[in-house]
Each structure stands twice: as structure tokens, then as C-alpha cells.
Amino acid sequence: MVESCDVLVSGTGSFAARIVFDIAATAKKPVEGVIAGRNRERLNWLVTAANARASIFGCPARFRGLEVDLLEPAAPARMIAETEPKVIVQAASVQTSAVIATTGDAWSDLVRKGGLSATAVSQALISSRVAHAITASGRAIALINCSFPDVVNGIITSSGHAVVSGMGNVAILSAVFAGAHQIDRDRIKLLAHYQNLAPFRAKASERAGKPPRVWIDGREIPDVYGEFTDVKLTPEPVIDISGASGVPLVLALAQDDPWEGHAPGPNGLPGGYPVRLRDGALDLDLPPNLPWKEAIAWNSAFEAEKGLVVEPDGTARYTGELHDALRAHSPELARGFHVSDLEAVYKDMQALRERLERR
User: Fold this and answer.
1) By residue range, what is the domain housing residue 128?
2) DSSP letters for 53-70
């Protein structure tokens, strides 16, 4: 007999753990959760710890585990069939975001020079498989993709599948800015691409480049770097904020509640935006007098200058420094690809990554 669940979190790494632990500590309505992964010992511990945290905080959340290797071709479909989730939070990846803080090999050097979009194919692999399995199942399952959503969500939608949004990135900045000014989160709205995070990892005196756009109480902040001088992120991924940032949205989707906040890659759009959830649908919730097309164009400009642009027809092309860095190692990969060829491109990209990691 199939035992359905409200939320399925795929992955057992630090990011997935943060999500599960925060669901356990904040749920105000009953939530049935499943944690899916291939590492049995780690999986069992996450289930034990999550249920313990729910008990500590007196929250009505309950978790169980499902052992599954998402790299196996039939695994996503089996995972869905055995759990019948309402929401899938896809947090498993063959390329962790920790690469941004890695040094000492040619692959991390390429990522540092060309940007995280060098990892987009690897980040998209499992998430695209899960999205395909959701479509094939015919079930109304909300997908939250945690793997590089600013770009990967566009790959998913261009492949013909639906994705609600991601976690982190724009939501990191909106949270730290609201926290720094001690204001309620509904008073602040941001447009922010993942590339806007890097300056806030540097010292205030060293910040440069186009900053995020920020509105407080409907007024746009003219000097964002000056306004938030004291805000500084860690060099490595800020999982303590990014993993937590999507939990209110996940719980709202699972419990059919309204919600307002920030999210990257909503409905496959590039970059991050203020959003509103109503009746299970996520829409942009832009500041007054900011046209929808202008907001999307602002976010799109980052990847158009340096990164990976995904066209509506499924063509993905590398641009700027990333294109040049890739071409130095593989002219064929630098030419880009069609999203329908993702599996084959992943094998070539993985071979390049392994070769560069040995250097």
C-alpha cells in the first residue's frame, strides 16, 4: 500500500538537512515528510534528527526515509510512485555549490573565472530527471528545484516540464537585508540574480559591479552597497540562510496557504524576484511601477553578459568569459547545446570536469 506524503525532500546533504530540520522546527500544521537518498546511514540519521527536532519544538511534523539512488534511470519515477508527494523539494546534485569556495585545480579555476553556470549541466541532471518523472506521472506535484535555480529552472521549463521555483539566492539577500535593518520581510522587495551574491562575500570597500535592486516601503534604494555596508556573506554557500529561505514556501504549498516572499527561478524565469503564492500558483509580486518585462530583462542581462542563456526553444548558449574559458578546454562544449541533449552533454561535461580536477 502506498503511503502518500505532503513533502518529499530528495538528497541527504547539508542543504537538504537544513530544509528538513527547519520544516521540523517551524511547521504549525501537520506535515508528513519523506527524505529520499542513497546513503542509508545518513538517511536514517536525518530522519531521526528531524523527528527529534519536531519533538523538541512541539511541531506536528513527522518524517520517514526512502532509500533510492537518483542516478539510476528509473529512480525518480519509483520515488514518486512510492510516496505520492504533494511537493517535491529536489536538493540532490552531482555538483555541489561548495565549488565556489574550492581552489587548487583547473575545474574550480574555470568556475571562478566563468561563473557558476559552468556547473549548470551537472546541476540540471537530477532535477531534470525528477521533473520528467513528475510530468510522466500525470500527478499535480509542485517541484521546488534547489540546484542552481536561476539558470536550471529555465532548462527544466524549456524541456516542457513545470517548476514552481528554487530556494536561496535572491531570498538570501532579501533576508539579510531585512534582518540588517530589522524590518518585516513584507516591507522589502528585491530583484537579484545569483551573481549579485558575490560582491557581498567581499569586504565593503571591494564591492563592485551591478548591485541588486532593492525597494523598502515602495521606495527604491539608490545606493545598495552603501545602504548595506555591514552585510557580509561567508565565502562558502550560506546554507543556514538559503536552505531556510524556501521552507515557508514549501509549507504553504503543502498546506494550501497563501504566502509572499522572494524566490529564484519562479516558473522557469531567469534570476530572482519578489513573488506571491495564491491558490497554489506562484506569480511575480513586483514593486509599483516596475513592468514585468523590465524585471525579467534586468535579470536576463547577467547571463547574457557572462553565463548560460536558455532560449524558449530550448537552445542553451554560453556567453562572455564562461564561453571563452570553456572554449580553451573544449570548443565543442563551448558551442552550447539543446536541452533535449542534456544527458549526452552531461557525460561530456563530466569528462571535462574530471580531467580538469586532476590538474
Assistant:
1) 5-168+246-272
2) HHHHHT--EEEEEEE--T
Is 119 in the same domain as 56?
A: yes
H or E element that contains 15: helix 14-26
Report if pTM > 0.85: yes
Same domain flag for 11 and 94: yes
Range list of H helices, 84-237: 106-114, 120-137, 149-158, 170-181, 224-227
pLDDT single digits (tens) 49-64? 999 999 999 999 999 9
Residues 114-163: tens digit of each pLDDT: 889 999 999 999 999 999 999 999 999 999 999 999 999 999 999 999 99
Among 159, 193, 197, smallest CA distance to 307 is for 193
Residue 112: inside a domain: yes
Residue 78 in grid coordinates: 519509483
Question: In terms of Cα–Cα distance, which of 297, 97, 144, 100 is closest to 213?
Answer: 297
Residues 254 and 324 in one domain: no
198: cell is: 558575490
CA separation for the pair 216, 14 (Å, rounded): 32
CATH number at residue 139: 3.40.50.720
The number of distinct structural domains making up the chain is 2
